[in-house]
TrEMBL record:
Region forming the signal peptide: none
Residues the record lists as binding Zn(2+): 137, 140, 157, 160
Cofactor annotation: Zn(2+)
Subcellular location: Cytoplasm
Protein name: Flagellar transcriptional regulator FlhC
Any coiled-coil regions, as ranges: none
Chain's gene name: flhC
Hydrolase among keywords: no
Length: 176
């Protein structure tokens, strides 16, 4: 039986607490630490003050390709890619740092963040697996999340070419 390092366990607990504070689901904690399910469950309840959410993690790439979520996903991915290239952080630490920067940008811009930590984590996994890629917009030159087979020559982002009904939802209606 291999003995578990106290230092490794301490780092895992510290990482799990940081993940819980960012809103990570229990499945993310299980994937990113070597702590037992029971230990993570107790830790989650202690840190969050409630039981973790139930249900499956998002598993489809489709959400990241819709208009507004794509803009948020693209901002996060660009931050994550920069952090990954500019530092030597572990993968999950780069995800946490990029998500914090994304969230700070949303607060500074007074914009409701659409990307939860768990979605950002899943998006990073999709990008690493090549299920989603970045494509350069033919108008503004920005890099946006897209499908791997997107025609880059004619690709236009949701900022340069928003859908016809963009911004005309219920929030924009005036009732008499």
């Amino acid at each position: 039986m291999a003995t578990k390092s106290v230092m490794t366990e301490s780092r895992d607990i510290e990482r799990a607490v940081a993940l819980i504070q960012l809103g990570a689901r229990l499945q993310v904690l299980e994937s990113e630490t070597s702590l037992s399910y029971e230990r993570l469950l107790r830790l989650y309840k202690e840190v969050a003050g409630k039981s973790p959410s139930k249900g499956q993690l998002p598993f489809s790439t489709d959400w990241f390709l819709t208009w507004q979520p794509n803009i948020h996903a693209s901002l996060y991915v660009n931050i994550h890619r920069y952090i990954s290239k500019a530092s030597e952080l572990d993968d999950i630490d780069a995800v946490m740092k990029a998500y914090r920067m994304y969230a700070e940008q949303m607060v500074a811009s007074d914009v409701e963040p659409l990307l939860s930590f768990t979605r950002a984590w899943r998006l990073t996994r999709f990008m690493d697996a090549g299920m989603l890629v970045q494509t350069k917009c033919s108008c503004c030159g920005g890099l946006f999340v897209s499908e791997p087979y997107e025609n880059a020559r004619h690709f236009q982002c949701g900022l340069c070419n928003p859908p016809a009904r963009a911004g005309k939802g219920r929030a924009g209606l005036k009732l008499h």
